[in-house]
Specification:
It contains 11 helices and 10 strands. It is α+β, with helices and mostly antiparallel strands and 409 residues long. It has 3 domains: 7-93, Butyryl-Coa Dehydrogenase, subunit A, domain 1, CATH 1.10.540.10; 128-235, Butyryl-CoA Dehydrogenase, subunit A, domain 2; 253-372, Up-down Bundle (Butyryl-CoA Dehydrogenase, subunit A, domain 3), CATH 1.20.140. The structure holds flavin-adenine dinucleotide (FAD).
Length: 409
């Protein structure tokens, strides 16, 4: 494992930092990078920052040059992300489009689709959402029931999606639909680009425990989608969906630790136990040390992935391990911080502190679900790393419409 940048990587890092220093302010220690938009003003700030990066050649740097990127290596992409995270920038509302859907269009889209959509996606002019999960299809995505039926030169979509991040401010969505219920479940799925402003699309924000509404329910009632919006071929949408999901793991898999233990130590210096800083309490120090050891483990697993990238190799299961350990760790750290804050920890109000730990605590459970739940990560590790027998999949060879279920549609 390499702990240091190579000479080329250090030069690239300096180039990134120089541009960022000239165009943004450094982030205050302990402040976190948010992901969810709260209002139009946030969306506009995020779009302005994205356009500025695009003008200077710093948007989607790992995209091939033909699509407007720099053709940068994945390690250079990671270096850019690390550096950008050190600066005060608006939330990244483009991750789903640029990190997951754009690469899917590059792999499976037509030239006309690539020309129409990718540049505006890169510049942040059009925001995209991922319409995959349904009330009855999440971990088992191929169980999806939203239907698309052909009608002349268009397809008509009916059904419901859920947990759709950013649907309320997205211009376009990428949706997986059931087109052939008589086929086995992975073989009757078709992938489309859908206009989120089309008649029949209804977006209902979901109120979250942290007070925000970053994701939504989306209902489709007779929504017409032109045939030219199909990604790949009829009933072959699963291939495109897999490309999106692989890119999802890579885009969110590492899950940085944010302020992590350093921020926790600062908090323990500020809050008292029996009239003295909490950090002077031996029990507090022990718990922080335990958290630090686990955080360091996650960071080293992340470095191992970066080393593999740096050598041009594909990272192995480290991303799944990093997520499986990192997400609960963030939750535990936030819970401990609230314990240290005492009664103040129960107050989720701007007037008390900066709400950093309250928000971290309330947002942490989502980190254990999005991009593959803890249990799914364990399944991946057990099957692909440890070589344990695969799960029994009783519906694998059965026509989707014949799979026994509590509901029929
Ligand atoms: C913050 C956040 C953002 C999201 N954004 C989007 C988005 O933009 N677009 C989108 O389409 N979706 C999005 N999702 C949805 C996400 O993809 C799903 O929540 C996830 O795939 C889990 O599916 P589910 O919620 O239906 O749970 P289920 O799959 O129903 O799981 C329920 C429970 O059963 C367990 N379980 C399921 N299958 C197995 C198994 N085979 N073995 C063992 N245990 C199992 C799970 O681990 C979980 O504990 C988002 C979710 C979150 C939290």
């Amino acid at each position: 494992m390499d702990f240091e940048d190579t000479r080329e990587e250090a030069e690239f890092r300096a180039e990134c930092r120089a541009w960022l220093e000239a165009n943004a302010s450094e982030r205050a220690p302990g402040s976190e990078v948010g992901m969810s938009a709260r209002d139009n003003e946030t969306v506009e700030r995020a779009q302005a920052w994205q356009a500025k990066k695009a003008d200077a050649g710093w948007a989607c740097i790992t995209w091939p040059r033909e699509y407007g990127g720099r053709g940068a290596t994945r390690i250079q992409g990671s270096i850019w992300n690390q550096e950008e995270a050190r600066f005060e920038t608006p939330p990244n509302l483009f991750l789903i489009g640029q990190g997951m859907l754009g690469p899917t269009l590059m792999a499976h889209g037509t030239e006309a689709q690539q020309t129409r959509y990718l540049e505006k996606m890169l510049r942040g002019e059009e925001i995209w959402c991922q319409l995959f999960s349904e009330p009855g299809a999440g971990s088992d995505l191929a169980a999806l029931r939203t239907r698309a039926e052909q009608d002349g030169d268009a397809w008509v979509i009916n059904g419901q999606k859920i947990w759709t991040t950013g649907a309320q401010y997205s211009r376009w969505g990428m949706i997986v639909t059931r087109t052939s219920p008589g086929a086995v479940k992975h073989k009757g799925i078709t992938y489309f680009i859908v206009d989120m402003h089309a008649p029949g699309v209804e977006v209902r924000p979901i109120k979250q425990i942290n007070g925000g509404s970053s994701f939504n329910e989306v209902f489709f009632s007779d929504v017409r989608v032109p045939a030219e919006n199909m990604i790949g071929r009829v009933n072959e949408g699963w291939r495109g969906a897999i490309t999106t999901l692989m890119n999802e793991r890579a885009a969110i898999g590492g899950g940085g630790m944010g302020g992590g233990v350093d921020t926790l130590v600062r908090l323990a210096q500020q809050v008292p136990i029996d009239g003295r800083p909490a950090l002077e309490d031996a029990g507090v120090r022990q718990r922080i040390a335990r958290l630090y050891i686990r955080q360091r483990g996650v960071q080293l697993a992340g470095l191992r992935s970066l080393t593999a990238l740096s050598r041009g190799e594909t990272p192995g299961p480290d991303l799944s391990i990093g997520k499986l350990v990192g997400a609960p760790l963030r939750q535990e750290m936030a819970a401990f911080a609230l314990e240290l804050l005492g009664p103040m920890g129960a107050v989720d109000d701007d007037a008390v502190g900066d709400r950093l730990w309250q928000q971290a605590y309330l947002g942490a459970p989502g980190g254990r679900i999005a991009g593959g739940t803890d249990e799914i990560m364990r399944n991946i590790i057990s099957e692909r790393v440890l070589g344990l027998p695969p799960e029994t999949r009783v519906d694998k060879h059965v026509a989707f419409e014949d799979v026994p279920t509590g509901r029929k549609s």
